[in-house]
Amino acid sequence: QSPLIQPASVSGSPGQSITISCTGTSSDVGGYNYVSWYQQYPGKAPKLLIYGVDDRPSGVSNRFSGSRSGNTASLTISGLQAEDEADYYCSSYTSTNSYVFGTGTKVTVL
Amino acid sequence: QVQLVQSGSELKKPGASVKVSCKASGYIFINYGMSWVRQAPGQGLEWMGWINAKTGNSTYGQGFTGRFVFSLDMSGSTAYLEISSLKAEDTAVYYCARLRPSIVVVPTGRGWFDSWGQGTLVTVSS
Questions:
Q1: Is there a smaller number of Cβ atoms within 10 Å at the N or the C end of chain A?
Q2: For A62, what's the count of Cα atoms within 13 Å in the CB-facing half-sphere?
Q3: Using one digit for the tens of pLDDT, what is the confidence trace for B53-77?
Q4: How far apart are CA A18 and CA B22, in angstroms?
Q5: Distance in angstroms (rounded) separating the CA atoms of residues B11 and B64
Q6: Does pLDDT of A1 surpass 90?
Q7: Distance CA A71, CA B38 (A)
């Protein structure tokens, strides 16, 4: 199973909005409503940000939002803050009864 | 609240075995699946597979068959990952992660990873 494709890095200034894309196929991202997003700080465990394509767990800031168009899912961070500087990964359930993660995106706050 | 607490770092020689534990608390253990995720140094996340905590059935991801075994101690609400015949390329941080929704609702294990252990670093070196 090939990883989902994410940009290696995305940057933005405080207060701006940025979007991270996650491109898969109709056998994963485009075929199931089990797309999720995770935030990971260096040396720490990942944290769930978005599940079910666009749902947010309680306690996660509403500055994080998810969406999908065809085989590409997206994570948007609005009102960018210094604390958002981290690595972000998407994930999807797949047609082979497995999961696949994205290649990961490093977000830098300028 | 849900907590997953993993065992400490391990240093092993090539060819040895290692068993990583993941003790769960704050929820009914047998009602959820548990996944394992690998992260090699400086690399991304890689799904290894999952175990159904109610039935004990395991599903292994591509590249994680043969030397990798998931198991459970249901009375102790603990999941285990055992890796045998260790190789240098097994050096990584291994995470356990609870699968949502509950397998009572979705028994196929489709979902997402809502709670994660802190990770266990396994270093394989001679």
A1: C
A2: 0
A3: 999 999 999 999 999 999 999 999 9
A4: 35
A5: 20
A6: no
A7: 25
> How far is the first Cα of chain B from the last one, in angstroms, to the nearest whole number?
40
* B38 within 8 A of A93, measured Cβ to Cβ: no
CA atoms within 13 A on the CB side of A70: 6
Query: Would you say how long chain B is, in residues?
Result: 126
Which positions in chain A touch B116 (Cβ < 8 Å)? Answer: 45-47
Distance CA A85, CA A107 (A): 5
Beta strand pairing call for A105-109 and A9-12: parallel
In A, residues 46-85, which contact B (CB 8 Å cutoff)? 46-48, 51-52, 57
Which two tokens mark A11? 């940057």
Query: Would an 8 Å CB–CB cutoff place A14 in contact with chain B?
Result: no
Q: Do A51 and B44 touch (CB under 8 A)?
A: no
Does the distance separating the beta carbons of B46 and A45 come in below 8 Å? no
The C-alpha atoms of residue A106 and residue A71 are separated, in whole angstroms, by 21
Tokens found for residue A94 = 């797949």
Q: Which residue of A has its CA nearest to B98?
A: A48
Express each pLDDT in A86-97 by its tens digit. Answer: 999 999 999 999
